[in-house]
Design brief:
single chain; alpha/beta; five-stranded parallel β-sheet; 5 strands; globular
Length: 204
């Protein structure tokens, strides 16, 4: 009787799955960068220049534009001190929520009152969320010459009241994390200064 040859089951090789390694120098934490200053100080322009740099580096970034917030989140609020405070707190809430979830939230919003800005910083501190205050300290004389939205011209013509820094107060930050004299440097240089601050704090 001839023995039946045994059939060998072919060995199947399962490829090893390469798990991506997280580099120690990868930055994944979010933060809020609040750029405060007078109308036409250059806050929004600097924020968008900075956002471009950060996105090129692969960071998740959102610019919270004050006009868009007024339209979609704070519609119905006026420009009384109480309403300005409420508006700033709403923006601060959204910014902290984004930052807490790994987004760099850039906020080019006037926020004229120190107690409003302090309340936003406190919210971030209570949640352990990084917060940087940048004062774009462009003098009112320079801002009125730029007059991006025509607000200074309207105020001078008596068509507008309550313009921050002219006939409504602006309380300058006493100890911001960074102060920028935008009239003495380019937009690129201003954005680079903020980027350097983020890098120094381990946030970029």
């Amino acid at each position: 009787m001839t023995p039946t040859p045994q059939t060998q089951t072919p060995r199947i090789q399962i490829p090893r799955i390469q798990t991506p390694q997280i580099q120690e120098n990868d930055v994944t934490s979010g933060a809020t960068v609040w750029l405060t200053g007078l109308p036409s100080a250059g806050k929004t322009t600097i924020a968008h220049e900075l956002a471009g740099r950060l996105r090129e580096a692969g960071r998740a970034v959102e610019v919270l534009d004050g006009d868009e917030i007024r339209e979609f989140i704070s519609a119905g609020l006026g420009f009384s001190r109480a309403d300005r405070h409420t508006n700033v707190q709403r923006i601060g809430f959204v910014a902290e929520l984004l930052a807490r979830n790994g987004v760099l939230a850039l906020v080019p919003v006037i926020a004229p009152y120190s107690d409003s800005r302090d309340a936003v910083r406190k919210r971030h501190q209570e949640n352990g969320t990084p917060y940087l205050e940048v004062h774009v300290a462009t003098p009112v004389e320079v801002c009125s010459e730029r007059d991006v939205k025509g607000l200074y011209a309207k105020q001078a013509a008596g068509e507008l009241t309550g313009l921050t820094g002219v006939d409504d107060p602006y309380e300058e930050p006493v100890a911001p994390d960074l102060r920028i004299e935008s009239q003495d440097q380019t937009v690129q240089e201003s954005a680079a200064a903020v980027h350097a601050l983020l890098s120094e704090r381990g946030l970029a």
